[in-house]
Amino acid sequence: MPMRGKLKQNDEAVIRQNYLFLKEEIEAKHIVDYLYSKDVISLDDKEEIVCQPSRSRRNDVLLDKLMHAGPGIAYCEFLKALDEEYSHVSQKLRKTKPPAARQQQEQSWFEELPDQFKQTLITDAMATRLSECFGSNWESVMLELGHTQVIIDREKQNCSNNVVRAITNLLIKWRQKQPKVATYEKLVECLESMKDGGNVNIDFNELEKIIVAENTRLGYAMETDENNLETIPRQESNAQ
Asked: Is the pTM of this model over 0.70?
């Protein structure tokens, strides 16, 4: 039986950053025999992948199996399989730098904002404004934030493929699911980490304008009303 568990953190990050690219460029049927021969997937896994009705679904199932194939040789064997059939894909994966491997960058506009603001939760109104900064391959960001592909597809369907509304709802659901994590800092960190992969189209200039303007509106002295999930200015004390 193949070793189970999650991939190494960096390997998982590379797969996530290139998830949509992988879905578009490979055909799972062409590499499952190799992966089975190397104990990356089981016979049941192989049969489950092959019997899927479309290339997109086969690739979805394969990538899901890979993400849970363990921290051992699975990712390396996956790259070897791609070397044989899709060398341009394996080359792109090898060139992708996971967040942990990146050198510390110069201080950005966001790092200059006050720490109190960075830890502010993203409100419904700001989710709407921020959603307009997302371009092609925005789904990769939602995967990185913890949503599954099933949830993303369902939200797109519920919103009649209105991308801005779908992104808005997914950002709000992210905050609802992770109320202590869904901050401006976490979102910007996620977007910055995926920028070098070249798979996500984000209007960073507009993102900066929106976030800096919100920081200015709220002011530096802030506190969070946890019940309303709104950030409000801290009242100055009149005590002597």
From this structure: no
Amino acid symbol at 49: I
Write out the CATH class of domain 107-218.
mainly alpha
Query: What are 154-202's pLDDT values in tens digits?
Result: 999 999 989 999 999 999 999 999 998 999 999 998 888 777 655 678 8
Distances (CA, A) of 59 to 29, 95, 119, 154: 9, 21, 37, 18
Q: How confident is the model at residue 238 (pLDDT cuts 50, 70, 90)?
A: very low
The Cα 81–Cα 91 span in angstroms is: 12
Which conformational region is residue 70 in: left (phi greater than 0), alpha (psi within -120 to 50 degrees), or beta?
left
Q: Give the C-alpha distances (Å, rounded to integers) separating 149 from 66, 69, 144, 162, 171.
A: 15, 18, 11, 17, 14
Separation of alpha carbons 166 and 30, rounded Å: 33
Q: Domain residue spans in the chain?
A: 9-101, 107-218
- 223 φ, ψ to 5°? -145, 160
The residues, ordered by sequence, that sit 6+ positions from 5 with a Cβ below 8 Å of its Cβ are 68, 70, 71
Are domains 9-101 and 107-218 of this chain identical in fold?
A: yes
Share of the chain above pLDDT 70, in %: 84
| Torsion over CA: 193, 198, 201, 203 (sign) | positive
